[in-house]
Amino acid sequence: xxxxxxxxxxxxxxxxxxxxxxxxxxxxxxxxxxxxxxxxxxxxxxxxxxxxxxxxxxxxxxxxxxxxxxxxxxxxxxxxxxxxxxxxxxxxxxxxxxxxxxxxxxxxxxxxxxxxxxxxxxxxxxxxxxxxxxxxxxxxxxxxxxxxxxxxxxxxxxxxxxxxxxxxxxxxxxxxxxxxxxxxxxxxxxxxxxxxxxxxxxxxxxxxxxxxxxxxxxxxxxxxxxxxxxxxxxxxxxxxxxxxxxxxxxxxxxxxxxxxxxxxxxxxxxxxxxxxxxxxxxxxxxxxxxxxxxxxxxxxxxxxxxxxxxxxxxxxxxxxxxxxxxxxxxxxxxxxxxxxxxxxxxxxxxxxxxxxxxxxxxxxxxxxxxxxxxxxxxxxxxxxxxxxxxxxxxxxxxxxxxxxxxxxxxxxxxxxxxxxxxxxxxxxxxxxxxxxxxxxxxxxxxxxxxxxxxxxxxxx
Length: 460
Prior knowledge:
single chain, about 450 residues, Rossmann fold, about 15% strand
């Protein structure tokens, strides 16, 4: 941990200079102070991984400094220096949270070893916090479920962009699974062993979001009683996911642009910049291009974020994934709720396939959770669905009249409508239309001919 910052506190100038020279030669970033008050000024203006302090100093002692540090942060490791005659005081300091003590006079190898162990403790503590955070995140994490052509294309895109440092913008309606895409990008990247930090820019008040993103120093505002790292620092080396990026205010857009350009952040109330290595993946349910045209989103920031865009389709455009998702959620909630649910009736699946899902996958998940909770046995029946779900089926979904229908004719009409729409969206290019419909070009040509829509069989 040669990049560690160390503060040396001793009233003897010769001891300050000795430790400063020694530690700098070891590759550390070192600052010094001659008394407790000067040390506290330094600690309030910057973060230190390790504080090495003499116990006996005129005025306030090293024990006073230890207590002040513990009030400000539990992250800073404190190492005490003591004369042999005051080892009892040093042991008392360890009971109050000091890592260890060394006695004067000491050998260079001795202090090198103790500092190395102290910084290992700091690293281990930080790694344990990260792992706990990742574990909590993984417990909430779901994988992307689906085998439809739109989802397969997203899988392919994730594989292509994951190994790059490029910023990615994920677009899509609320509830489509944009965060899952961001997590998969991180998981498949070389940053996978580093933090994935997610923040919803629309869920945090504007006056708090800046301090959440960039952190703050003690005294920056009322209530800032100690230094606090922001989410950019927490994500250092990993990925920062900025959900609902379109909600950022103009002042924060400017500051985010600066971070992307300079790869440094400055804490609220701070005076120094700090380098960060963070990949930014952002997401929005808005059309950011329209927001730029309307003057609500900075064009330069938009192009910085939108190097690669991944559009996540709404559930109504990937209906073939509904059975897979239902099975996945049914198994998940059966375990979580302790319910022995194993199957879904055809009637339930029919209603779900016909429903338009304005809330997308998130709404489907909630519906399945409700159904599992209300089911009386191993089977989910129609009675477990919300009342009126059929009435909220997608507009134009065929309803069976009392006199019945000609199923073959209905299906042919629906197929003809989809083929025609595909051709229109593809500008008449049949290969592109086949891709839009998720079928092979040969199958598409066959369907056109079958329905009498292929006026030029040699056209591509």
